[in-house]
Amino acid sequence: MTLGLGSWRFLLAFLVVISHLWGGMIHGPAAYAVWGFFVLSGFLMTHVLRHKYGDSAAGLRDFAFNRILRIFPAYWISCILGGIAILILPKIGVALSTLNPQFAWPQGLVGWFGNITLLPLPVGNLLVPVSGALAVEVGAYMLMPLMAFNRPAAWLGLILSLLLNAVHGFQPDTFALRYSSFLTAFWVFAFGALISHYQGHLRRLEAPRLSVIFWLANSLVWLWNDAWPWTYGLYCSVLLSAWVVLSLATRRPGRVDGFLGDLSYPIYLFHTVAGAFVWLVVPQERSLLFLALSFGVTLAVSWLVVVFVDRRIDGLKKRKVFKDLAATPSGLTADTSVAGAHAGAAINK
Predict the structure, then answer these.
(1) Among 65, 131, 153, 163, which one has the highest count of C-beta atoms within 10 angstroms of its own C-beta?
(2) CA-CA distance, 268 to 270, in Å (whole number)?
(3) Alpha-carbon distance 222 to 174, whole Å?
(4) 228: Cβ–Cβ under 8 A, 6 or more apart, which residues?
């Protein structure tokens, strides 16, 4: 199987799963994976806006409509399952806070509004514990057309967001703020957008296998330097993620690669909720057995969502074709290829 963007998205989602469901996971790769999704989103959304949707009012409406259809149906299903877990499982002894401290009933109007809309608001408790990153991505989508059609705007967004990171400082105690806040994470989307803008000049750097190897090597540095992920390792991972995306974007995806990419978003969405229900039948500890069973349930649920939700909703999307196939990497010509960056991303779309 040829490694493509679909396989890359699947790997990123899997790293997030392992980090949340296995107590023995090394530190760093899950955070690198989430920001890796952000790089991919910035790159892909810039590309499809420029070469597929355009900057007309109708094109931007179609872009927004298709993104909503890609993100929210599966997300709202995960919210329903998360709400059921929060209502029922604590009453029978399942400690949801052990999986994620934010896995709890939303509080107040802002909390509920943020959970439902995925706007980047200070929501606190979450029906879907990983949805904080999705909210950052939705916020970035609102500014993505500006960066896609105005290269200086992308540079400005990158510089201002990086300056805010510097103001907070690159110490471990500021990591959570820098990593999860919309304004401090925005530079990652801007960087992905700029990689798309300069793709023609950067193609000489393409190295699919070597870029992935270096990305994985950065994920192992924590074994020798336990402060690395929380200081500069996250920023190195963005550079390496951009290298991977640049290297894989021109690869023609196969059916397996495309299907793995389709699975990445529901895997990201449903793994914590799946784990909460698995704790009904195994000891409440993040063991390898718990990881294996939870991931198996997550895969099954993700397959059902892809087949019976995502693929049926595809028929409602506004159909667009790339305006200049000569300028479009072969791996990005299908809507399913650009649909899965994170919420891509993961988080894919």
Answers:
(1) 131
(2) 6
(3) 18
(4) 28, 221, 222
Main-chain phi, psi angles of 171, to 5 degrees: -95, 155
Rounded Cα distance, 174 and 168, in Å: 7
What are the tokens at 255?
């059916």
d(CA 35, CA 133): 9
In angstroms, rounded to a whole number, what is the distance separating the alpha carbons of residues 90 and 94?
Answer: 5
Burial class (CB in 10 A: 0-12, 13-18, 19+), 46: buried
Cβ atoms < 10 Å from Cβ of 320: 16
Flag whether pLDDT at 341 surpasses 70.
no
Strand partners of residue 103: 126
CB 75 within 8 A of CB 305: no
Among 184-193, 247-256, 280-289, name the one with the lowest average pLDDT. Answer: 247-256
Instruction: Name the one residue in this structure whose structure tokens are 């259809």.
Output: 69
For 126, phi and psi rounded to 5 degrees? Answer: -130, 135
Integer Cα distance of 193 and 9 in angstroms: 17
| Residue 323: pLDDT band with limits 50, 70, 90 | low
Rounded to an integer, what distance in angstroms lies between the CA atom of residue 147 and that of residue 192?
A: 10
Compute the CA torsion angle 37, 186, 230, 286 (nearest 10 deg): -40
